[in-house]
């Protein structure tokens, strides 16, 4: 299982979370990545943890004020990027172009989707992975794996029908090792989570719990 920790715009210490994630990844052997704000990519990558951008813009180099250039994210130390999100909704054409921009910069890609239909559409764009997250469970206490298990199994089936090489992750409300293994049993190959780590009093303890049954 891959554990991808999205720090969103939470007021946490990204370096402390990154160091904790690096330690837990090294101790457990589980792949863990941290996705900070764009301005923190370099500092987070310097901790040695696998670092992802939260989004990259669809444009190339040029006159694109305010964009997050994929090449700049890669130069700062990112090795992957989320694209689209329930909290950062993008047009299909722009999601497609962002996947292509990320590929040009050699960034691994994970396109977020709200449901199995969008998961299939996202898989058709050829990212490395898609992450299905029911918006109503994001940031809550109920894990997608127990609150809406069918959305995970249906998303896995939908993506496989389009492109078997695209991994399916799931997220929303995941905060314990039990949640992670439940998602794994539903067919998810990774977890996208945020508040369970970013808002934890002790991020390392939270991460240790997440990987405890893997
Ligand atoms: O990108 C992460 C997801 O939106 C999940 O957030 P959450 O773990 O706080 O529910």
UniProtKB/TrEMBL annotation:
Where, subcellularly, is it found?
Cytoplasm
Q: Which domain of life is it from?
A: Archaea
Active-site residues, record numbering mapped to chain: 85, 133
Keyword Chloroplast carried by entry? no
Gene Ontology cellular-component terms listed? cytoplasm
The EC number(s) attached to this protein equal 5.3.1.1
Gene Ontology terms, MF aspect: triose-phosphate isomerase activity
Which keywords are on file for this protein?
Cytoplasm, Gluconeogenesis, Glycolysis, Isomerase
BP terms from Gene Ontology = gluconeogenesis; glycolytic process
**Which SUPFAM superfamilies would you find in this protein's record?**
Triosephosphate isomerase (TIM)
Provide the catalytic activity annotation.
D-glyceraldehyde 3-phosphate = dihydroxyacetone phosphate
Q: What pathway annotation does it carry? A: Carbohydrate biosynthesis; gluconeogenesis; Carbohydrate degradation; glycolysis; D-glyceraldehyde 3-phosphate from glycerone phosphate: step 1/1
Where along the chain is substrate bound?
Answer: 6-8, 138, 173, 194-195
Listed InterPro entries: Aldolase_TIM, TIM_sf, Triosephosphate_isomerase, Triosephosphate_isomerase_arc
Broadest EC class assigned to this enzyme: isomerase
Q: Subunit composition?
A: Homotetramer; dimer of dimers.
Stated role: Involved in the gluconeogenesis. Catalyzes stereospecifically the conversion of dihydroxyacetone phosphate (DHAP) to D-glyceraldehyde-3-phosphate (G3P).
Say which family it is in: Belongs to the triosephosphate isomerase family.
NCBIfam families referenced in this protein's UniProt entry, alphabetically: PRK04302.1, tim
Name this protein carries in UniProt: Triosephosphate isomerase
Gene coding for it: tpiA
